[in-house]
């Protein structure tokens, strides 16, 4: 059997970083997700590391465990509070955020 990874690119209100995000799973690009869209793919059960990228910008890496038959859902956005947004020009890994979406998990 396998698990499922779901990554949504959604933001509430205005978002400056609206380009599609590349999805990296365990250091490999597995796809991309456009604004207001969701990427869904089967993954092997076990421990994984997830990161979003858009050009030089990225999110911090998130590590998660996926069980057989489980859907692991994340939501990515480029929206942040002003001080973090400004700091992200110096520290690109602060540009995108990745949050576990427990309500969307199955």
Notes on the protein architecture:
- The protein has 106 residues and is mainly β.
- The protein is 6% helix and 49% strand.
- It has 1 helix and 9 strands.
- The strands form 2 sheets. Strands 2, 3, 5, 6 and 7 form a 5-stranded antiparallel sheet that branches. Strands 4-1-8-9 form a 4-stranded mixed sheet, with no helix packed on it.
- A hairpin with a 2-residue loop joins strand 5 and strand 6 (57-58).
- The radius of gyration is 13 Å and the shape is elongated.
- The protein starts with a strand and ends in a 6-residue tail after the last strand.
Percent helix, as a range, is under 10%
The profile of the biggest β sheet is:
5 strands, antiparallel
The structural class is mainly beta
- Overall geometric form: elongated
- Uncertain segments: none
Distance between the termini: 15 Å
The radius of gyration computed from the alpha-carbon positions, rounded to a whole number of angstroms, is 13 Å
* Multimerization status: single chain
Beta-strand content bin: over 45%
The overall pLDDT, averaged over residues, is 88
The total count of strands amounts to 9
- If helices are DSSP runs of H or I spanning 4 or more residues, what is the number of helices? 1
Order of helices and strands: EEEEEEEEHE
